[in-house]
Design brief:
284 residues; alpha/beta; 2-enoyl-CoA Hydratase, Chain A, domain 1; 3-stranded mixed beta sheet; 11 helices; 9 strands
């Protein structure tokens, strides 16, 4: 197992930890691959009912690794093309396989809206520090969030000059409302933990030292339920939420592919990265 993504299992709860603290757990190619594998492995384990996703202090996740993007463009274009291809293939498979028996199936489909969290089981996001841009999207793809009082959230896609790809334009408005989501995306400003709680972005805020114990307590509450029912109910939430707005995901994917296809200049990303770091420090 890659050291950049750690997995521990205790009392039917898997804790997945992003482990690049020196880079604020930025999503490099290596970490993206490791995270997907670790989450999938945890989801397939018979001794796991719930996942907790967190980061090695001091950050939750700073998003895609901008140093990597600034050197060679990184995985951004590949991710956009891969996501569009996946959606097209999924659509073809769905069309070919839908039949009357599907309504009676007892096995919920995979619930991860993106390949980054491919899981049928509940995922609690334990946000221990900054969750920025792709890191914010990663958090939003969890079922619900608990936050340390040190947590901060920002959407800096526009400051970097890239486009959301993992559902931010769908999930952020669902969490905080359209006007606040637009404010976060247009300004790139940071939101502290207590503001995030007031806005509905997170479920609870706890002292930093209590974050993982609190998340594990919630996970234990989930474990104590009938797991078949838990997964079926959460899958139903997903289906209900997708019913009126499924096209939003496809629209974002198309727009992201078109935007990235216009060209991503590594030097521009590196320049913007430095500005974002300076601005983030001034907003602490």
């Amino acid at each position: 197992m890659d050291d950049v993504a750690l997995l521990s299992v205790e009392e039917r709860v898997a804790t997945v930890t992003l482990n690049r603290p020196e880079a604020r757990n930025a999503l490099s190619r290596q970490l993206l691959g490791a995270l997907t594998r670790v989450v999938r492995d945890a989801d397939e384990r018979d001794d796991v009912d719930v996942l907790i996703l967190t980061g090695a202090d001091p950050a939750f996740c700073a998003g895609l690794d901008l140093k990597e993007l600034g050197r060679d463009g990184g995985p951004l274009r590949d991710l956009a093309r891969r996501d569009v291809a996946r959606r097209t293939n999924d659509s073809d498979v769905d069309s070919a396989n839908v039949n009357d028996d599907d309504a009676g199936t007892t096995t919920p489909p995979p619930r991860g809206r993106q390949a980054i969290l491919p899981t049928t089981k509940p995922v609690i996001g334990a946000v221990n520090g900054v969750a920025v841009t792709g890191g914010l999207e990663l958090a939003l793809n969890c079922d619900f969030l608990v936050a340390s009082d040190r947590a901060r959230f920002a959407d800096t896609h526009a400051r970097v000059g890239v486009h959301p790809l993992w559902g931010l334009t769908v999930l952020l408005p669902q969490a905080v409302g359209m006007r606040r989501a637009r404010q976060m995306s247009a300004t790139g400003n940071f939101v502290d933990a207590h503001t995030a709680l007031a806005w509905g972005l997170v479920n609870q805020v706890v002292p930093h030292a209590e974050l993982l114990p609190f998340a594990r307590q919630l996970a234990g509450d989930i474990v104590s339920n009938d797991q078949r029912a838990v997964r079926a109910i959460l899958a139903t939430y997903d289906a209900v939420n997708r019913a009126p707005g499924e096209e939003g995901w496809e629209t974002e994917a198309r727009h992201a592919a078109a935007f990235q296809g216009g060209g991503v200049e590594p030097a521009d990303i590196e320049r913007r990265r430095r500005g974002i770091l300076d601005r983030g420090r001034s907003q602490v």
